[in-house]
Amino acid sequence: MRKKQKSKADRVYLRPVCLVLLFWLSAAGGAVAGETSVEFWPEIDLWLRLSPSWRLSMFVPIAKNIETDYREGNLVLQADYAWGKPRSLYRGRLLDDNRAGQMKAMLFRGGYLGGKSLGDGGEEYTEKTVFFEYHLRNPFKGRVLISQRLRCDLRWLGEDTEFSSRWRYRFMVEKEIDVGRISWVPYGSVEAYYDSRYDTVNRLRGIGGTSVAWTPRVALEGNITYQYDSKSSITNLYALNVILHVFFETRRAR
């Protein structure tokens, strides 16, 4: 009886990825004719764990177009609260964590993003966004972790601060691999974006990469991103993302 219940639960959690893959395949059919861009995304992320449940972070990502040298910069401030026990025990290092620990099943995140194009005083692009995220984590056999994230973006774009909203759903698979004292977390994700400006799912993103940590204070992450956007002048985007994670924690969090 328990096995039947578990297999039924597994099917429930796998249904969303099937829906995202259907969107992905439909987008791929029209992607060939669109414009293509190649970008480099360096980033530094600072994390401060206040307690086993609370965490603050600051991200500083930059996007650079390889061909045109066009650049955008962002500043992201956010706070996390994690709670709940997963349906099976999982102890390990997660993609955005500094050390192995007992995973909590759910996480709520709120934050602010400010961004603008660099070199032109923000004439090409400016954005102010307040966002909220809900994460649900489900461990499986072999220390494989499947997580789902639902995110709401409340956005003010351009000099006229035009308001719009965006809903994003992400399905991600990750797994920690220990090699001596080094922890590797390879992962892959697919994400769909609904934008109120177009009243449709206009963007699909796929990411594959890994994070490596050799000390509790520092981790290095690299990934390859493909993005299809039916409403952008750049239909197909390919990016190399390199992220330096720096972790801090209070005594209470240890």
Note the topology.
Blueprint: H1 2-31, E1 36-49, E2 54-65, E3 71-83, E4 91-92, E5 101-102, E6 106-118, E7 126-140, E8 144-157, E9 162-175, E10 177-179, E11 182-195, E12 200-215, E13 218-229, E14 236-249
Parallel strand pairs: 1-14
Antiparallel strand pairs: 1-2, 2-3, 3-6, 4-5, 6-7, 7-8, 8-9, 9-11, 10-11, 11-12, 12-13, 13-14
Account of the protein in words:
This protein is mainly beta and 254 residues long. It has one domain: Porin (Beta Barrel). 12% of the residues lie in helices and 62% in strands. The chain has 1 helix and 14 strands. It has one helix at residues 2-31; strands at residues 36-49, 54-65, 71-83, 91-92, 101-102, 106-118, 126-140, 144-157, 162-175, 177-179, 182-195, 200-215, 218-229, 236-249. Strands 1-2-3-6-7-8-9-11-12-13-14 form an 11-stranded mixed β-barrel. A hairpin with a 4-residue loop joins strand 8 and strand 9. The radius of gyration is 19 Å and the shape is globular. The protein starts with a helix and ends in a 5-residue tail after the last strand.
Please indicate the count of domains: 1
Q: Helix coverage percent of residues? A: 10-25%
Termini Cα gap? 39 Å
CATH topology: Porin
Q: What is the number of helical segments per DSSP (H or I, 4+ residues)? A: 1
How confident overall, as mean pLDDT? Answer: 88
H/E series: HEEEEEEEEEEEEEE
Class from helix and strand fractions: mainly beta
Rg estimate, integer Å: 19 Å
The CATH class designation is Mainly Beta
| CATH architecture level-2 label | Beta Barrel
Neighbour order of strands in the largest sheet: 1-2-3-6-7-8-9-11-12-13-14
| Largest sheet features | 11 strands, mixed, barrel
Low-confidence stretches: 1-7
Estimated share of beta-strand residues: over 45%
Total number of strands: 14
Taken from the alpha-carbon principal axes, the silhouette is globular
